[in-house]
Amino acid sequence: MGLHLDKNLTWQPHIDSIFKKIRPIIAILPRLKNILPSKLKRSFYFSMIHSQLTYLNIVWGSCARYKLYDLLTLQKRAIKILFNLPFLTPTEELFMTTGFQSINSAVRFSGALYMHKVLGNHIDCNTKFPLVSSVHSIATRSQSQLVLPKIKTTKYGTNSILYFLTTTYNNLSPNLKGIQSLDKFKRELRNEFPPFLHGVDG
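Above: the chain's sequence. Below: its structure in token form.
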């Protein structure tokens, strides 16, 4: 499947492997930035860098947030070099101007999209994600939320795949959750997870 595992499922080996794949690509960007036209630069970015950051990211992206910092730094460096942007370009300006999703935004986007597909029966999934309303009969504001999976410790449990997927869905706006169409959900989801996430990307 292309995933690098460790016994504690910290995903550090896989993140390290992505880092090693992207770093050599960045080394050749100074030679390409003045050759490739703007349209091809975007194609190059998506095929060589973005693809590495999004492949199966709903699995390894559930890791502790700080583990993604080095990949975010590489991502910003690649964009600045490829598109001739100043080294001190603020992170928010960098992503909002180019429209590229930061790795943190991309991980959440993928997780939310996956959950919509599962809950809408667009794809098969053996894991069940029950609603709070199916467990508790008393009406509360959380009835439309998914039941959080039980965890043994907050240190590792909150970084589990199921916990990440469940909380990502629960944090979506009610209007977004109510959208049935997959295409419309995907369009509106980009507003929920813009290229730059305040409080996450810096």
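Residues 33 and 117 are 38 Å apart (CA to CA).
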